[in-house]
Amino acid sequence: MSLRKTLPVVDGAAVVWPDGARPAPGLSVAKERVDSYFSSRALAMMLKAAFVTDGLGSARNYLNLYDQAEAALDREFGASSAMSGVSRSIIKRLGVDRIRRARRANYAQLVRALHEQDATRAGLQLLFPELPDGVVPLACPVVTDERDALRECLAARGVLTQILWESPAEVPQDEFPESWRLSQRILVLPCDQRYSPEHMEIVARAASTLGSSPCSP
Hints:
Elements: H1 36-54, H2 59-76, H3 85-93, H4 96-116, E1 125-126, E2 140-143, H5 147-156, H6 177-185, E3 186-189, H7 197-207
Antiparallel strand pairs: 1-2, 2-3
Helix pairs in contact: 1-2, 4-7
């Protein structure tokens, strides 16, 4: 499980062994490294915080650094690279229960708001209208035939979304047509602990107006 996708940390992942299983004897963690990935991502996080909180700089500055960090990750890290001390220190200070509650509450609020905005009229379909007990969402996935246009419109209005994931070449399109179709239509709306119920209303309104208003901030 990738921790950097769910928590405000620079790097790190967790391996869960179910049903009392134990790691394979050959699995070991490599020594912690401080390299171009770590420095690029740490700086990107700080610049993003300054931009979001105080309006300093521009979004392009930290987005470029995030891109550099991802490129460095592919080059420099192996499957067993150790988590940095900075990330371990951050995790110890996180209010995990609060994060769980906030993510679930925001997801539920976003779903309600999308229904109220009649998002299906804009061609949006929720993949998971309800969360099972105990599930903490990464984000809120929707599907639409106008995925790329919607993503552009949301970005113009300050709502950053993700595509998780494009189907890789190793998954043949002719053998897995449904998986490929989903990968071309899926868009992930934000609902993590940084946001409030009011933010979810804003996201729902923006996502539900594709085709009925210009793509402008």
